[in-house]
Amino acid sequence: MRVRFNAIRAGLAALLASLIAPKAGAAMFGGPEPGGIGFLPASGQIATDMFWFHNAILLPVTIGISLLVLGLIVYIVWRFHETANPVPSRRTHNGLLEFTWTVLPALTLVVIAVPSFRLLAEQLIIPAPDLTVKVIASQWHWNYGYPKSVGGFSFDSLYVEDKDLKPGQPRVITADNPMVVPIGKVIEVDVTSQDVIHSFSVPSFGVKIDAIPGRLNKSWFKAEHEGIFYGQCSNICGIDHAFMPINIRVVSQSDYEAWLVQAKKQFAVSDRVDVAATRLVHP
Amino acid sequence: MASVTDFSHHDVEAHHAHELPTGWRRFLFSTNHKDIGTLYLVFAICAGLIGTVFSIVIRAELMEPGLHVFPVISAVMSGDGSIDAAKNMYNVFFSSHALIMIFFMVMPAMMGGFGNWMVPLLIGAPDMAFPRLNNLSFWLLAASFALLMCSLFAEGSPGMHGFGGGWVLYPPFSSVIGTPGPAADFVILSMHLAGASSIIGSINFIATILNMRAPGMTMFRMPLFAWSVLITAFLLLLALPVLAGALTMLLTDRNFHTTFFEPAGGGDPILFQHLFWFFGHPEVYILIIPGFGIVSQVVATFSKKPIFGYVGMVYAMLAIAFLGFAVWAHHMFTTGMSLNAQRYFVFATMVIAVPTGVKVFSWLATMWGGSISLRPPMLWAIGFVFVFTVGGVTGVVLANAAIDRYLHDTYYVVAHFHYVMSLGAVFSIFAGFYYWFPKMTGYLYDERLAKWHFWVSFVGINLTFFPQHFLGFQGMPRRVVDYTEAYAFWNMVSSIGAYISGAGTLIFLYLIYEAFKAKRHAPDNPWGPGATTLEWKVPSPAPFHTWESPPQIFGDEDVHAPAIAGHGSAA
Amino acid sequence: MTASGDHDGTTVSVGGRARRNNCLIGVGGITLALTMIGLTYGAAPFYSAFCRATGYEGTPQRVTANTDAEGHRILRVGFDANVAPGLDWSFEPESESVRLRTGKTVTVFFRARNLTDRPTEARATFNVTPEVSGEYFDKIACFCFTTQHLGPHESAEWPVVFFLDPALENDISMARVDSITLSYTLFAPPSEKPAPGRSADRAGPAG
User: Fold this and answer.
1) What order do you get walking across the sheet with C148-150 strand by strand?
2) Given B178, B371, B409, which is nearest A88 (Cβ)?
3) How far apart are CA C189 and CA C193, in angstroms?
4) Helix (H, G, I), strand (E, B) or coil at C163
5) Strand, helix or coil at A5?
6) Looking at CA atoms only, how far is residue B177 from chain A in angstroms?
7) Is the peptide bond before A140 cis (omega within 30 degrees of 0)?
8) What are phi and psi of B257, to 5 degrees?
9) Substitution target from C4, C6, C14 for chain B, most B beta carbons within 10 A
10) B15 interfaces chain C, CB cutoff of 8 Å
11) Hey, is the C-beta of A159 within 8 angstroms of any chain C C-beta?
12) How far apart are CA A279 and CA A144, in angstroms?
């Protein structure tokens, strides 16, 4: 009975994949590039603003201060080496200097704090959601539950082993059933855990929120590109901590509605009503 | 604060050389601050080597995608070479690596090692206030390390050995749900003993520094290393008991059915995080502040100039220590904290950058106008100023919760704390080692070997950790045994850096061996006119007993470089 | 003159005022350490009490009655239900959400069913998000206040009676909050601990 059910699932999954393949040329790959050094591709205002804050404000400050100190060291060692300066000065105070190097950093921090606080509000005040997805973490996979208004189904999103990967699917970060969401809509994720602390993270959306047993945490995103977006569990949770990927597939509204139809059939568990609010009982 | 204690009328008893104990009894029962300091330094080197081996094995695994190394390691250590056992062993290795480096390398080296050796010498005291407790502190630490080693071979998760939940021990993973076996209990008990060792040690340092300074050695004439040890001792005394309480609660949750951190019983796993980080953040200042003190003394010595802005340096360390208790939840920005709480912790954390900046600029200003001699201790100290700045500024980045949301639990954080620890604290420890080695052993080391050690390590450690910033930006999480192919290039570079650093460590070990073999005798002061603190007034190696009659200190108040009349070294 | 009093003649010891001051610092240090441990233990009940009193970290308030003063704003309150492993019950809210004016008291129901053949107990933990709304989420009656019992295959409908304090309209932190979620997790009592996390009953990834 279970074997047949799994075969049906596999078949439907293949059908699903072909239905929601990304449109040619429009899909964003929200994951790492070989040898990459910068942020993952940003989709949505939160990530865009976050990356701007770092690259336009924090990065110049950090690089600037590091180079300043390095430059001063190089100059000082050259100019005041004992061969160049055999008689040391005895100077141990300079009021103006001490005042400057206290006040200037403080002012820099204020300059940093203004956009920093604004970003925090943007991230943490959740606008009215268009779709709420219940995310349940357990050792070692994610479960996504959709509200009753769109079908009330939930499904596990399991790690795909190397031998089961399809061409083009990256190793370690591919999951079998991605969370599917429509483009341009406010998606709220309600996150909790069944056992130990995990953490739900999708870097391209600027989302990271811990999954804690006995507690519901919320976060949100609004994706502005179709494509597939990757994340990984971000709190040590046991032997398969590295093997709990998060995949979110962002599709057009019409493709999302088509997926809902398929998903309701594929993932509905017939002996249970109102599944979205309860956990799946694992046989 | 404390008045200067006049020793001249009090009895300081010490017997002469012919009654000195020898052999293993000398060290097992030692109540001498120099011998105990030596015990701590040897201990730190040995533990540091084990921690380094762990880290090189970790980097060997991460050099390429896939699991190659740990199935072998796991087979050797537990007899189980399966993939699952290998994954578990990796988690155990990075957890143990952190605990070893923090509690059994950095803290023993700085406080137990240099603190014990140098603080009495620097302040003109004959020994520590509680010499027998000093001995107890050391052996508690040795026992603590033994317990940690035991945990590696005890059952943790079902069917697995060791505790693999990170040095932070978060429940529920560290409680019965995640780690039902006794490995976690061994780790907890190990930390209890280490905490007791440090608490006793800090009481010892506080009493010694407040109460046993030589006449004329006012608080504001004390060398900055002594100040740094005093401040660190207070941090330890206030923070470690909180860890002890949190760990005891975890222990009873695990073994005696309490539910402090279990939601089923009305508890909260987040409470553990609050308590842990209330200890944990001051802990990172505990790890660096003595390093600040060492660097101040080394920079002043080799610039042949007094430290710039001595009083500012003292207040900066005090400010950092004090503020360090007010910022703990910046480690918890993703736990579901409210907007206002996050705002507060962002603000408070950034404020700490100000006194830290004061210190960095003061070191540069000390060197400015000086007559700089690039002997090995100075190389490490100058290196420290640069690498600590780099680590510090990435800390400012992480302080902003808005961006920490992306970077938390990624390799950016790993890069940040290794820059301040593996580059910062470790550089300052090597600076102290190369500075005080002649005083402690009476031998001169080969300075060319020392410079090789510095440059090979500088290149290697930077190469190890700088690319990890990139991995963090690309989203690679921390504490992972395997990763997707896109992360392969920078992981390879990082691992090569680790091997180069390992080579640097081998140079270090050879240098020590060579110095003891060559037996080049060191003068009282090998460093020239810049070395103005009291330890350079006694012979090298420092005699078993020093300052039996305390020196009388006079000082030029402007310069905080005390001159002394009368010498106090023992026969 | 004070003798050191120990048999190991190489131990340095001080006498007189220095010794007394050392002992004072020693006692003071130990007292400080013990005080900090005490405060740490005190943190556990203090943290619960603090959260309950201030609504910190999304802790709803528990009140005896409503003041009957209605406000102006209407917010959406959603309901979330979870069952922890080791408790074989089903548990869901009767409705996914309600729209509610501040100050107005409302009763919602949660349906629970014991799926086993044995009588079982459960307790609920709870929180509201966003965290800042905890201060204004006032519960008059809730099944979460006590342990609940269900017989074999028994089901029950549990009420939660609550209102949103109109004072939230004066709090700028609540100005942009349109939607609050009340979440419950049912746990078996601690003595019946769930089995420890299954170590990969899936094969787990190959190397």
Assistant:
1) C97-101, C74-83, C179-187, C120-129, C148-150
2) B371
3) 8
4) strand
5) helix
6) 7
7) yes
8) 60, 25
9) C14
10) yes
11) yes
12) 10
* Interface pTM, i.e. ipTM: 0.92
Residue A102 to chain B, least CA–CA distance (Å):
6
Among the listed residues B78, B202, B356, B394, the single catalytic one is: B356
Distance CA A238, CA A232 (A): 14
Catalytic residue check, B10: no
CA proximity to C205, closest of B279, B541, A173:
A173
- String of DSSP letters for B207-229: HHHHH-PPTT--GGGS-HHHHHH
> What is the distance between the alpha carbons of residues A232 and A172, in angstroms, rounded to a whole number?
9
Write out chain C residues lying below 8 Å of A147, CB-based. 96
Q: Which of C22, C39, C187 sits opposite B264 (nearest CB)?
A: C187
Task: In whole angstroms, give the CA distance from residue A117 to residue B466.
Answer: 28
The full DSSP string for B229-266 is: HHHHHHHHHHHHHHHHHHHHHHHHHHHS---TT-GGGT
| Chain center to CA of A101 | 37
Q: Do A199 and B409 touch (CB under 8 A)?
A: yes
Backbone angles phi, psi at A207, to 5 degrees: -105, 130
The Cα of C43 is separated from the nearest Cα of chain A by a number of Å equal to 20
Count helices and strands in chain C by DSSP H and E runs: 1, 10
* Residue B402 phi, psi dihedral angles, 5° rounding: -60, -35
CB B494 within 8 A of CB B463: yes
User: With an 8 Å Cβ cutoff, is B165 touching chain A?
Assistant: yes
Residues of C in Cβ contact (< 8 Å) with A149 = 96
Cβ separation of C196 and B180 shorter than 8 Å? yes
- CB A196 to CB B173 under 8 A? yes
Q: Is position B448 annotated as part of the catalytic site?
A: no
| B244-283 residues touching C, CB cutoff 8 A | 244-246, 249, 257, 259-260, 262-268, 270-271, 274-275
Angle at CA of residue B292, ends B314 and B321, nearest 5°: 55
| Contact assignment for A272 to C90 by CB distance below 8 Å | yes
State pLDDT tens for residues A80-110. 999 999 999 999 999 999 999 999 999 999 9
Structure tokens at C60: 């709803």
DSSP, collapsed to helix, strand or coil, labels residue A125 as: coil
Output the CA angle A176-A177-A181, nearest 5 degrees.
Answer: 140
Nearest C-alpha of chain B: how many angstroms from A228? 15
Considering the candidates B208, B296, B422, B464, report the single residue annotated as catalytic: B296
Annotation says B127 is catalytic: yes
Give the residue carrying structure tokens 């921390």: B478
Contact B223, B309 (CB under 8 A): no
Predicted confidence pLDDT, tens digits, chain B (571 residues): 333 333 433 344 444 444 567 788 888 889 999 999 999 999 999 999 999 999 999 999 999 999 999 999 999 988 999 999 999 999 999 999 999 999 999 999 999 999 999 999 999 999 999 999 999 999 999 999 999 999 999 999 999 999 999 999 999 999 999 999 999 999 999 999 999 999 999 999 999 999 999 999 999 999 999 999 999 999 999 999 999 999 999 999 999 999 999 998 889 999 999 999 999 999 999 999 999 999 999 999 999 999 999 999 999 999 999 999 999 999 999 999 999 999 999 999 999 999 999 999 999 999 999 999 999 999 999 999 999 999 999 999 999 999 999 999 999 999 999 999 999 999 999 999 999 999 999 999 999 999 999 999 999 999 999 999 999 999 999 999 999 999 999 999 999 999 999 999 999 999 999 999 999 999 999 999 999 999 999 999 999 999 999 898 886 654 555 555 444 333 2
For the full predicted model, state whether its pTM sits above 0.80.
Answer: yes
B90, B285, B445, B536: the catalytic one is B285
Dist. CA B325–CA B321, nearest whole Å: 7
Chains with ≥3 CB–CB distances under 8 Å to C:
A, B
Copy the structure tokens of residue C141.
């009656």
